[in-house]
Write a structure and sequence with these properties.
The protein is α+β, with helices and mostly antiparallel strands and 265 residues long. It is 25% helix and 25% strand. It is globular and about 55 Å long. The model has no long low-confidence stretch (mean pLDDT 91).
Length: 265
Amino acid sequence: MPQKNSQKPAVSRRGHSLQLTALRGLPGIRRGGNLARLIVAAARGERVAFEDGDVLVVAQKIVSKAEGRVARLSRIRPSAEARGLSTELHQDARFLEAVLRETRRIVRKGPQALIVETHHGFVCANAGVDRSNVPGKGGVTLLPRKPDESARRLAAGLRSRTGKRIAVIISDTFGRAWRLGQVNVAIGAAGLPVLVDLRGSCDLFGKRLHATILALADELAAAAGLLMGKADGLPVVVIRGLRYRAPNKSKAADIIRPASEDLFR
């Protein structure tokens, strides 16, 4: 649920700037890799000392690899539905089968992608199944099964190792209705308000706001995406300078618009 507006703002900045730092030095992530340990080691190598209130944005790809959410197309046997879609869309039937297994329902078919609703409730291209940045031939990554739980585990691991309260966002690149291009959005989050409800507050000229809810976690994920890049090998970004009240139950799933309000479903 959105963080409710109150007299004290739920989110503010320290001064007029935020600091974003991409962590170098992370090794290739394998199944079972301890991300908290690896991230703390990388931060130490960059001489970054974590502080209370830091926000860590982590690319979905390394979370999926650590959790074993990697599939080999050579081991996938396409279903009749996947074979039919392959003929229709001129795509690899094995890849489409991987997409279908992650899919609750198909929303739209296109020449380059299937727009689907995943089992998480995300509406995105190819259910987040992705060939990029996977070593070897014919490998694909799948989204974490429960990305909000993944974020909570990582936040707990970081606190155990650093003694600091660090919020975590797991990000992935999604397309958007109405607009071209992709941006990083939050698919998992822990330790910060993912939505900030400004309804009832006033703008600069004293006009009361009636509909403004900020997708804070998505804004932070998009900012971190500027440093990540697809070929830069920088899957972790530390954001510093944001003041926020940590909610008890805020999660990235709260950002998903209910189907009854979604004009595109």
